[in-house]
Hints:
alpha/beta; D-Maltodextrin-Binding Protein, domain 2; disordered N terminus
Amino acid sequence: MALSLLTAMVPGSSVHAARPSPPVVDRALQGTVTVSAAASLTEALDSLVAAFRSAHPRVRVRTNVGSTSALVAQIEAGAPADVFASADLASQDRLVQSGHVVAAPRIFARNTMQIAVKPGNPLGVRSLADLPNLGTVALCGRTVPCGAYAAVLLARAKVDLPEGMVTRGADAKATLGAVSAGDADAAVVYATDVRAAGRSVAGVAIPRGSNVVAVYGISVLRGSRNRVAAQAFVDFVVSPSGRRILASHGFLAP
């Protein structure tokens, strides 16, 4: 036995390490799944869908991204959807109370907030306290999770922004877009959105002790027409593989 172990460690020996087994492909699962997800999940969702479809090639996944609050309104109005992924838990609770969610939502990721500024940070923004000295600051709508998180941050920092200097975005992507398009000097958005924007903006970190943590929830909707596949997608998102994909896009562990 000792000789065989030694041979396995000698370069050029005929003993090779076992190759990793190929991914399991489930061809039994099929149909279409519509996922309504917070806009801040856009890039991560694309990666999650691609990986899920590699394992379930007969399942077609449609995505509908937007502000969490707008998605809730769509679902309550009867818009077709199988899975709901939100940037907060309050929106999930609202759908639970209205009977639109089958089982308790699952937390699958967390996020933090960051200040987005123009490349190179020409105005020298260092903290939330600098925002009142700017011309225009972009914030998400008040009823949108990223807008609510920003309001908490500003209140904690005792920063008052007159509404006349604030432009409101429909969701996190639109809010950050105001900076990259030159319509705002800064924005308060998710750290993952600043990362996804690449060189079009720069990020100014908010200290951990002063920051807020956004909690993301996911659930299968009662109106789903493909509940088995919808549940499989949710299970994938919360799995170690799903979490690795989310982490690669900058999301924090749940």
